[in-house]
């Protein structure tokens, strides 16, 4: 097979054959297809798209580039959730223990934050002692003992995706729906979960800015899941405003613990419960305990404490606190009509909660706590946002990111999409 023939075929709008796809992905992973050839192919895919058969086969080829985990040794069904990423999205933290408390096993491989969206592993690493890297045998032991595990993916999982994602990042080819869908699904299917719920975020703070693009991504991923025998459903959820009140690392862990204790912000609770019910239904566990009850009766908190301790963390240890704080107050009275997720995400990132390059450390204490959310009445001078950083020099650029992110109308109402916009199955 010749890379140039495959590139020409896609460039000219032909459907790639299974043999062409298998060869291109495997040869690229082995280093036999050059980076410039794969970048031309990725651009041809971005411009001409892929059929369902092509995207499913591409996903399979990426799965086949590495190991595939499996959890048949467990005595309960496995189910997982993937979020396309947002601002204040700490849902995995209360969700995985809540679903485990309802009887399913949740083997979740998570990622770190890059850019303005946070990463679950960065948040959990703010818990003293907690360890993200586990062997497969350790994952199985934590799953057996607690019902849930959240850890980093090992290097053996879909190595083709790791190589291709790095290439897409520098060749303007990240924004291809078939390439995003196959990238996400290859890792989730290789993780070995039997059922999967996708939280596809929509809005300024999300990858997908419009509901139309988010629906197309969701439909593509649901189809890939079905083609690979993983029961998959997707919820399209709002990311025009931050989720919950806390944006950062330790501040999001603290908020998640409030939810696990039966309290916490209404939107975080609503989404945790909705995704939890979908995860149980996708795993064929419709009659199981309700995740809302698991949050109320302390059973989700019990799983959380055991899951954190099983990965070396001390769930009762004080969380890191930033050295410096700055308060942003309401400039006028009225209704908060806008709190832009992207602006708040960039501000938290500039405060040190996120990283600019993969190798950068994050500040666990940095972040933002919102004291009002869109739709709330505010009074001039009241605290709107608390900003936290380890160094006061970070505040001016964070405040710049917030310019225009906050709108208050003297009389009016916030025109917001619902938290759960749509469901795709
Ligand atoms: N997340 C992924 O894992 N892959 C993509 O291509 C985009 C987001």
From TrEMBL:
Pfam families: Glycos_trans_3N, Glycos_transf_3, PYNP_C. The keyword Mitochondrion does not apply. GO terms for biological process: pyrimidine nucleobase metabolic process; pyrimidine nucleoside metabolic process. One of its GO terms (molecular function) is 1,4-alpha-oligoglucan phosphorylase activity. Keywords: Glycosyltransferase, Transferase. GO terms for cellular component: cytosol. Its EC number is 2.4.2.4. SUPFAM superfamilies: Nucleoside phosphorylase/phosphoribosyltransferase catalytic domain (SSF52418), Nucleoside phosphorylase/phosphoribosyltransferase N-terminal domain (SSF47648), Pyrimidine nucleoside phosphorylase C-terminal domain (SSF54680). The keyword Translocase does not apply. Residues 335-409 form the Pyrimidine nucleoside phosphorylase C-terminal domain. Homodimer. Belongs to the thymidine/pyrimidine-nucleoside phosphorylase family. This is Thymidine phosphorylase.
């Amino acid at each position: 097979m010749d890379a140039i023939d495959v590139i020409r075929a896609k460039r000219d709008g032909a459907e790639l054959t299974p043999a062409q796809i298998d060869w291109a992905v495997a040869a690229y992973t082995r280093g036999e297809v050059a980076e410039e050839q794969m970048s031309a192919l990725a651009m041809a895919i971005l411009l001409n798209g892929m059929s369902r058969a092509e995207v499913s086969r591409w996903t399979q080829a990426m799965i086949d580039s590495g190991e595939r985990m499996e959890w048949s040794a467990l005595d309960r069904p496995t189910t997982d959730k993937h979020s396309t990423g947002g601002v204040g999205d700490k849902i995995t933290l209360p969700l995985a223990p809540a679903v485990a408390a309802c009887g399913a096993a949740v083997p979740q491989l998570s990622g770190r934050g890059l850019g303005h969206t946070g990463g679950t592993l960065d948040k959990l690493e703010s818990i003293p002692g907690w360890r993200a890297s586990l062997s497969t045998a350790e994952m199985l032991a934590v799953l057996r003992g607690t019902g849930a595990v959240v850890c980093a993916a090992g290097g053996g999982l879909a190595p083709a995706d790791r190589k291709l994602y790095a290439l897409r990042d520098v060749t303007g080819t990240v924004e291809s729906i078939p390439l995003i869908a196959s990238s996400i699904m290859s890792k989730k299917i290789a993780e070995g979960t039997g059922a999967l719920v996708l939280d596809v975020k929509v809005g300024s703070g999300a990858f997908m800015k419009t509901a139309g693009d988010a629906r197309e991504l969701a439909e593509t991923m649901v189809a890939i899941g079905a083609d690979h025998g993983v029961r998959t459903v997707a919820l399209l959820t709002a990311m025009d405003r931050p989720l919950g009140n806390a944006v950062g690392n330790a501040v999001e862990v603290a908020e998640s613990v409030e939810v696990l204790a039966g309290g916490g912000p209404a939107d975080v609770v609503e989404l945790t419960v909705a995704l939890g019910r979908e995860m149980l239904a996708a795993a064929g566990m419709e009659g199981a305990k309700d995740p809302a009850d698991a949050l109320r009766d302390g059973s989700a908190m019990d799983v959380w404490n055991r899951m954190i301790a099983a990965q070396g963390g001390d769930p009762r240890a004080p969380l890191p606190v930033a050295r410096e704080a700055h308060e942003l107050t309401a400039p006028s009275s009225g209704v908060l009509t806008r709190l832009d997720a992207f602006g708040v995400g960039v501000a938290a990132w500039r405060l040190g909660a996120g990283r600019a390059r993969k190798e950068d450390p994050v500040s666990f204490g940095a972040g933002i706590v919102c004291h009002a959310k869109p739709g709330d009445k505010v009074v001039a001078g009241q605290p709107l946002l608390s900003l936290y950083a380890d160094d006061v020099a970070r505040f001016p650029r964070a405040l710049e990111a917030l310019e225009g992110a906050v709108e208050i109308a003297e009389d009016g109402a916030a025109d917001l999409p619902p938290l759960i916009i749509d469901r795709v199955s």
